[in-house]
């Protein structure tokens, strides 16, 4: 895969490492004209895999971001939030979606 990065996080609920997305490069790589952003990732954790999509590094609680929580609530639900740690847009029961023994694969795809 093009420009893959590996990040092993053991920082709890703090976002410390940020990666920027080259939107021009995304357009050139996209095979689907409706796809604005696509990310493939793996999570190995007992619970609470957090992914933050933000236009700025280190956003505040009022900044518009997308925070995805996989295996929240003790590995019982997955949630899409519009702000850091609040304003859930949707929440789905996903019991045992994560595993502390194996990497589970996911992908995020956003359309225009």
TrEMBL record:
Signal peptide: none
Record-linked Pfam families: Methyltransf_FA
Residues in Farnesoic acid O-methyl transferase domain copies: 25-111
Residues in coiled coil: none
InterPro entries, alphabetized: Methyltransf_FA (IPR022041)
PANTHER family: AGAP008648-PA
Record protein name field: SFRICE_029121
Organism classification: Eukaryota, Metazoa, Ecdysozoa, Arthropoda, Hexapoda
């Amino acid at each position: 895969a093009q420009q893959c990065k590996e990040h092993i996080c053991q920082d709890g609920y703090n976002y410390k490492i940020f990666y920027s997305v080259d939107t021009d490069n995304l357009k050139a790589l996209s095979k689907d004209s409706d796809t604005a952003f696509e990310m493939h990732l793996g999570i190995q954790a007992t619970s609470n895999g957090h992914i933050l999509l933000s236009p700025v590094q280190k956003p505040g609680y009022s900044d518009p971001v997308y925070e995805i929580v996989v295996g929240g609530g003790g590995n019982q639900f997955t949630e899409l939030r519009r702000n850091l740690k609040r304003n859930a847009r949707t929440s789905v029961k996903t019991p045992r979606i994560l595993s502390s023994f194996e990497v589970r694969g996911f992908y995020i795809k956003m359309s225009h």
